Design the sequence.
């Protein structure tokens, strides 16, 4: 017996959280007609089972507190997942406030962890690679300069 689009969506959501955009794309990939996907999404939204705000908060909390990601990187990730910029900005700010996240301590922790894994390199090479690593992680240049200056000298 074929699964209804609503049950298919519930199965997807039981495996992991989705944003509206992600779930819409996934349902269409599973060959659910677009109009059925939209009605399923509307039903899930009204039932509170699909919530981009809750998703953004959980994602920001996980990445900021757990992994030490930068706010810029989290915003970019959330944008790719279909969360609007204002909502992601609010979620990040809320997590920073609620969890008392010290962004300077986070970047320093990430930098120290990276240095520990880099082995025995010339100081200039180490600082250059650390700078590039932190830039790829989305940290601001001023933050990177400060932490590379402090940690790179040790």
Sequence:
């Amino acid at each position: 017996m074929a699964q209804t689009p609503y049950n298919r969506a519930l199965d997807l959501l039981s495996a992991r959280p989705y944003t509206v955009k992600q779930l819409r794309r996934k349902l269409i990939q599973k060959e659910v007609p677009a109009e059925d996907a939209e009605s399923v999404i509307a039903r899930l939204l009204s039932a509170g089972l699909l919530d981009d705000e809750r998703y953004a908060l959980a994602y920001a909390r996980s990445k900021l507190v757990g992994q030490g990601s930068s706010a810029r990187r989290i915003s970019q990730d959330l944008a790719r997942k279909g969360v609007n910029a204002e909502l992601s900005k609010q979620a990040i700010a809320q997590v920073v406030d609620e969890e008392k996240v010290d962004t300077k301590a986070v970047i320093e922790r990430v930098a120290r962890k990276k240095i520990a894994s880099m082995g025995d390199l010339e100081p200039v090479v180490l600082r250059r690679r650390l700078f590039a690593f932190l830039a790829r992680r989305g940290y601001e240049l001023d933050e990177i300069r400060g932490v590379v200056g402090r940690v790179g000298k040790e």
Q: What stands out?
A: The chain has a mean pLDDT of 91.
